What does this fold into?
Amino acid sequence: MRVAAIDQGTTSTRCLVIEDGGGWSVAGTRRHAQHHPAPGWVEHDPEELLRNIEAVLASAGAVDAIGISNQGESCLAWDGETGKPLSPVIVWQDSRTTANLAALPPAAEVRSKAVCGLPLDPYFSASKLAWLVKHLPAVGAALEAGRLRLGTTDAFFLDRLCGTFRTDLATASRTGLLDLSTGSWSEEMCALHGVPRQCLPEIAVVDAGFGQIDGTPVKVSIVDQQAALFGHDCRKPGDCTITFGTGAFLLAIVGERRPPQSDLLPTIAWHRRGEGPTFAIEGGVYDAGSALEWARNIGLFSAMEELGSFEGPSALSRGIVFVPALSGLAAPYWDRQAAPLFIGMDHATDRRDLVRAVLEGIAMLTVGLIEAAAKVGELGPSISIDGGLSQSAYFAQFLASASNRSITVAPMHELTALGLAELCGVDVRGARTAARTFRPDGTVGADDHLRFARAIERARAWRH
It folds into this structure.
């Protein structure tokens, strides 16, 4: 069996062809533009994303099935009759709705956490969709005409490519509009945000089948992080993975029941045909790969190969600290007003020290997620990581030392694609060999943690 696994991410669209036995190859990669029309706004052109999906799929050649992963919370509006987008994609990083959410009564936050498990944060789709309905005349006109469709990017792709207006339960759980107790759209949350319930897609299991593209069945559709969790072979409570892409996202399996309220968020890992939903807890760092890209853009380094190793003590131990809050702070702080900052430079500080501090800052924010997850339930003996940053041995070792846990890096780092293929029915065991493990070495101590915690306090106080 040959599967085209399409990973439609925040900065690019990739397609891997994965075969039974675990053999794989990259069929194609296309980057897309990031648009920032106002401070805090992040948008994509939906037609560009669609063209890139079609292009990388064409590069795959003949396959037996297709699986597609999506960005999660990124969303848009389109015309149900013509398929034409009525808005840009508002990306998960976008914070334009911060003030709208702050204006809601305090009780709304309590109800949101009770119903959908999520706080009132612009990260999630609900307030973004409400903003489109309220501010774009074309969206309002389509609503009045009964032609409006609203949803996350997966629903748009599937509607246009397959004629199927659907999303899966895991993606729906990232919107802020799902009732976790019933697995259906919440009338209460739709009313709270001002999102017309009738315009949202049907919710299906992850492997329900989503139609065909030129005769090839689209078997699976799911959020990229959840696909990566499955690709890591995480199945048991306590199994945990962190995907380092544009952001960093921790997911840990908790089982068949909704987890108790904590600093991390309850979410659906997946819902497969013939099974009940699998629940997980999730926490994120808004800026991981995007913080590194920013560091590269300002000249701190030029190639990822420079990030593999560094000489001497860590930047953090020498008092050089970076808080990567370019988009604010996510779990457990949920503070969009937090500011990125460097602390501790002197005349001897050079760009290698600064880029090292960027790596360490991402790792230290990630440690906060791991510690929060461990309070919900016991984690397994090792945490698996994937994504671009996982390829830096320095980063993986620092994360192991800072978290005091073993960190495992799979040799095949396209775990989102691997998970998609496995959900489609491919035997991928051959791709899970010779993982590299990093163990704590005692180089990150209590003083380092205290120093970073104080830097977080300063980052949060800067704009308040």
